[in-house]
Specification:
This protein is of the alpha+beta class. Helix 1 crosses helix 7, helix 2 crosses helix 3 and helix 6 runs antiparallel to helix 7.
Length: 188
């Protein structure tokens, strides 16, 4: 069952700020042709307000095809945008299709939505603690690096001062050596 929930969660997309499943994925799970699923929905449109189901625009469908690797290959070439069903729309869909397969699939799908909602709203405490620990270690590491960096800068500054002092001494000696010397001998 865990594997089935994971497979279902992989078919849940975020579109228009809603977590939805697309008609072709649902048709596969309900073991009906996509065309039959769409016909059943169109015959019962009153059961599917916009917060239960909506049709993707051609632009949204093109974007989804472009950026989503999970879509079945055959659907990537379809020009007809699919219906997107929210969790409530999926529950309503099982009452429209009325088969045992549809009911069982709807139960699994609702469980997948609930599991995702729980995962998002209650992240694992262990993972939060682990992240806090990693952030703390990273902070200590960065502080050590900056301390070493400052030490290097201090050492470099001292060495530069020594070099400047040595150069000043050399320049003073050079001036003494470059001074014109008194000529040796007599002047005429």
């Amino acid at each position: 069952m865990e594997l089935q929930l994971q497979e279902i969660q992989n078919k849940i997309y975020e579109i228009r700020g809603h977590r939805v499943m697309l008609d072709f994925d649902l048709a596969e799970m309900y073991n009906v042709p996509t065309k039959a699923l769409k016909q059943a929905v169109k015959r019962n449109l009153k059961r599917f307000p916009l917060d239960f189901m909506f049709e993707l625009t051609k632009y949204e469908w093109k974007e989804l095809v472009t950026f989503c690797d999970q879509l079945p290959e055959m659907m990537k070439h379809s020009y007809i945008p699919p219906f997107a069903f929210t969790e409530h729309g999926i529950t309503m869909l099982s009452s429209v299709l009325r088969s045992d397969v549809a009911i069982d699939a709807s139960i699994l799908i609702v469980r997948a939505f609930v599991a995702m909602r729980l995962l998002v709203s209650n992240p694992s405490i262990d993972k939060v603690r682990e992240l806090q620990h990693e952030v703390r270690e990273l902070k200590w590491y960065v502080e050590d690096v900056f301390k070493d960096y400052n030490d290097i800068n201090e050492d470099t500054r001292i060495q530069l001062e020594l070099i400047n002092a040595s150069l000043a001494e050399l320049q003073a000696k050079k001036k003494e050596l470059d001074k014109p010397r008194n000529p040796i001998g007599f002047r005429t």
